[in-house]
Design goal:
mainly alpha, Serine Threonine Protein Phosphatase 5, Tetratricopeptide repeat, 161 residues, elongated
């Protein structure tokens, strides 16, 4: 794997994804696409290229069984950084998928925030109310959930970008 990772970096720190993919396909054909998509996703995230991040996060999600925590993490990263509604709607799908195992306060919060940022205010308030209820059941700190719900009810952004 170190040889494949070594092939990733080209001159001046620019990734050579073609060489990386070739090396992966030669040595680890079964995992090559998955590893390559993850590498691209993290590269674009670290370089604040949010369109690239969403493209490759979506490829990772579409390829297989992604744990709910990862889905939520990808969705929250998009919520915090993406402005484009079409890209946010992809993240909304990941977030909804993260809820497949039941009501988790943090995952519901992400889902509600993405609904709100994409203009689905009524449903966002409903989901944030569920997030607050789940946080109470989980015994967690509810202040942030209440603050977000109040912002939604007032029609003010819950995000900074």
């Amino acid at each position: 794997m170190n040889e494949a990772l070594g092939a990733l970096m080209g001159r001046a720190g620019t990734p050579d994804f073609d060489a990386f993919d070739k090396s992966l396909n030669e040595k680890y054909p079964k995992y090559a696409k998955e590893v390559s998509d993850y590498a691209r996703m993290y590269y674009y995230m670290n370089n604040k290229n949010w369109s690239g991040f969403v493209t490759y996060a979506d490829a990772v999600v579409q390829a297989g069984d992604v744990p709910s925590g990862n889905l939520n993490s990808f969705a929250w990263t998009a919520f915090e950084n993406v402005k484009n509604k079409a890209l946010l709607e992809k993240a909304l799908g990941w977030s909804k998928q993260s809820l497949k195992d039941g009501d988790n306060a943090a995952f519901l919060d992400t889902y509600a925030n993405l609904l709100y940022k994409t203009g689905n205010n009524k449903e966002a308030i409903e989901q944030q109310t569920k997030a607050l209820e789940a946080a109470r059941k989980e015994g967690g700190d509810i202040a942030a959930y209440e603050q977000t719900l109040n912002k939604m009810k007032k029609g003010v952004p819950t995000w900074e970008n």
